[in-house]
Amino acid sequence: MNPQLAKETSVLIVDDQVLAKGYMKYSLEELGFSDITYVDKAQLALSKIRHEHFDLIVCSYNLKKDQDGYYLYEQLKHNSELPPSTAFIFISADTTSDLVHSIVELQPDDFLAKPFTVNDLDKRLSRVLSRKKALKSVYKYIEKGQHAKALAEVESFLGEPKNAEFFPLALKTKGELLLACGQHLQAREFYQAILNVQSFTWAQLGLVNAHIHLDEDDEAEKLVLRLAFKPDSQLAAYDLLSALQIKQNDFDAALECVVMATEISPRNIRRHKTALDLSRITHDYETQFEAAKKIVKFAKNSIHDKPENYLNVARAGIDFAMTSDDQETDKLLKQANEYVKQFKAAFPKAELHDQMKVINARLLYLQDEKENAKALLEQLEEHNWETESMEALLDKAKAFHEMGLFENSVAILDQIEQRCKKDDSQSGLFLHYVQKEKVERSAIKQTPKELNNEAVTHYQQGELDKALVVFRQAFTVMPKNPSISLNLLQSIAMIAKERDIPDNAKQVIQLCIKTLENCNLSEEQEERYHKVRGFLDQSI
Predict the structure, then answer these.
(1) Which entry of 155, 161, 262, 389 is 20 to 30 Å from 284 by CA?
(2) How far apart are CA 29 and CA 45, in angstroms?
(3) What global pTM score does this model have?
(4) Rounded-to-integer distance, Cα 299 and Cα 163, Å
(5) How many C-beta neighbours within 10 Å does residue 148 have?
(6) How far apart are CA 302 and CA 97, in angstroms?
(7) C-alpha–C-alpha distance, residues 336 and 105, integer Å
(8) What DSSP element (H or E) covers 286?
(9) Taking a C-beta distance cutoff of 8 angstroms, is the pair 505, 478 a contact?
């Protein structure tokens, strides 16, 4: 360790284990550090960072006393409270796959596994602090949001042969700044030039990003699919691939990518929220419910922990129950009620009375107590609609639609849409979902179960054309439901016995088959499916 560099470096240690703190103090002092501050809680660290500048933060990943190191670092990055000139290093005795993936995707400056020696610490800190010092002039402009000046500074840095040791980091920074400045064509050429010399993962990912911004989707897809099979680029590749699929409105494929990424690195709340939005667009009620539950699980003791997370699980459970059979509905209602209880226990002072009335009204509706449900909705205060959250308004729109109050429902969806367009912080996926809901709820008045019951009645009475129309409506709002898919497929098969299948029905057949091939069917359903499939294969 350079003695002068150690002497000039202000250090913050965040650790709640006495022995670990003692060993870290001894190790740092051995290396020549003297300006050292210790805290044992994430909130204390946050307060310190907001009021003092630190050149180096060494943080335990596994803090026990309040939120852990993961969420401290995430919060610092989310709020732009960690200057790029400050080095951040995680330490942890846990090296499980989930933890390592979580840390890698957060991209701290380094990760040091316990136990480590003074020599280990010396090597890591020397490398990290030297990099930070070398690029300090570049980071100064980045901290001020002056990306063009930062880009000019990094170009100047790369023009000095004496800086050759730090060229790889400087080149990576240059690529990021080109993208940040919107110079996507220059970024593409830059990354391609880098890759002609050496196949850096960061350059490949940067090139994918540039291709996407330049609408070169085919090139982006070819490259990102290769990166998705490499452990060191897998998560970033899944994110870029899902972004590309969202851009192309291929929401089913995007959801599949996001779900795979959440399984690799489960603590990333942003991904779970994306999965929630995508599952709503694709009417994948089961995945929606699971994503909502994971948000509650992983948001605890973090900046993401809030009352609405719990209510969103209850809402997702109700949405799922609307499309399920009676036995499954009972289980889902119990789970929804359990999260309502957890919400009340975790946030006893939260005053969300109207939101609770809406949830309770929807629960009553599912228990065939429609009049009591309507009575609850009549107690809602109309004057606070403009201040309610998007999720609360969306739930209210669904409740009104379920009670047959269609004008109220559409009016609320209109209001949500207008607010989404004015609110830049709102997800574009959420707006897409709201617009889709408006179209579907204007065209389809019945609830999913009502649609299925009506279609079955038509089918049993031999009214095949009417049955087909209603089954297709049911399939629109329940495309992942095997019973609906099978009923629709069987209706098409019955009509095909009398006349040719129209071309627009052939696409529906393929969608039904896709659902059925990916579901666990009962023996009776399996038998019906093979009979219908065999007939259709001969007829098409």
Answers:
(1) 389
(2) 21
(3) 0.85
(4) 42
(5) 12
(6) 21
(7) 32
(8) helix 285-299
(9) no
